[in-house]
Amino acid sequence: MNKTFVLCVCWLCLAGGCGSDPDPNAAQMIDVTPGNAKNIVDQTAVKVDTAIQQNKEALDAAIDAQTRSSAQ
Hints:
Blueprint: E1 5-10, H1 11-14, E2 27-32, H2 37-71
Antiparallel strand pairs: 1-2
């Protein structure tokens, strides 16, 4: 007997927060079955890693800009 679970995932929340202007397309309903569960976990991990990297790059750029501004 196959069981199907429905998982509601917000990629931005998993990656550390939505900010003040959340992406309405970030929340998705996903059908989780035993056959696709590993793929969903892998895809989620990639999306979270990508979002974390983008947040890190944005933070680094903001710090660099602040440093340059303070040096002038």
